[in-house]
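User: I'm putting together notes for a lab meeting next week and I want to include a structural view of one of the chains we've been expressing. I don't have a solved structure, so I'd like a prediction I can at least talk through. The sequence is below, exactly as it appears in our construct file.
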Amino acid sequence: MARDSDGKAYYFNELTGETSWNFPEGAPPADPTPAAEPAEQPGFVSGDVIEPQQLSISDMPTMGTGPMVGVTSGGGERTMAEVFGDGLPKLLLLVIASFFLMVQAMIHAGQRPGNGNIAYAVAVSIVSFVLTLAFLAFGKYRPAEFASRTLNFKQYTFSMPQSFALFMIVWWGFGAFILTFYDPYTVPSNAYIAIWVGFVCCVLYLAGTYSRVGSAFRSFSEISLQPSVTALYGLIFASGVVFLVSLGYTKFWTGSFALVTGIISFAISGLTYFMLQTKRLSRGQTKASAALLLVLWSLAVFLLTFDLDVEKDFDSTHTTIHNETVVVPVDDHMDAFTKGGNGFLATWAGAFCSFAFAYHEFVGVELNFKRAIRQSFSIRHEADGISPV
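Assistant: Thanks for the context. Below is the predicted structure for the 389-residue chain, given as structure tokens.
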């Protein structure tokens, strides 16, 4: 406060030089906490002009399987694991399977020239081997183009991994169907195992490149089905496999029996499943269906998976040696059923599912071998030591 020449008091602000006759009202105290800066939205940068942020192609994730990948933390070249993600082990295993099939098929091509199915096996393996190596090399040495290149078909757009997975699933699917169901790799061998390993790798890689396929796989594995429904699913699948395999053995009466078994079991299992879902089947009818399926598949195991020498006498070839006719039994009698092929596995799977279905319907208890085996080999800690469960 100060006084003018007349002696009248007034107020003077020494900091700002402002004067006032009235006592100035103080401004509200300032908040010691600094005002928070507005959060930047993704894709925008702060400044006078807000513009979309431009991403370089090296910052974009690859379209393959696995988590989002980009440049390494040091800004160096991306590794194959970063480019291909979780799909890399499947692709490497696919290369190995293709190589094993290629070697075995080429050996057989030299031994049996002119066999069309063996030539087809050679083609399946070589195409898969070359394309997979080229696919890996392209992603390794040109990762930016690998991540950005797409294939447009009508209104659909496919990335490089998606296009590769689609082609391979079709290529190996036909190969597995023709080569392991009919000829020449119907029984376990290096080629047989390589074919199915290659096909499974393609399925898994496809599930990784398509989110919907992967979600469907995960959802199906998490579904908790009723025991009877699970057994019927297995019976329907086993019936279809037995039917397809039997088409190559109709010259044997056991092959014809396998054909009829597949048709009858498929019809009964499918009808039973439909009637159970619509609640149109009584408890007695369900038991009758379970009993019939159990008898049918028990006969199938005995007649199809055991190598019946009696039948070979009726299915023989006649060869003339030194003007004498010699009867030579056939050497491919039901091999897919008797030597561990698709038919053998499907027949035993059908028998197991029919037993599980009958056990549940007649005993009223779920047959869970998986849980029983897991509990048998698990251990628990008790107060007096460790004892098996």
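A couple of points you could mention at the meeting. The radius of gyration is 36 Å. Residues 227-388 form one domain.

User: Perfect, that's what I needed.
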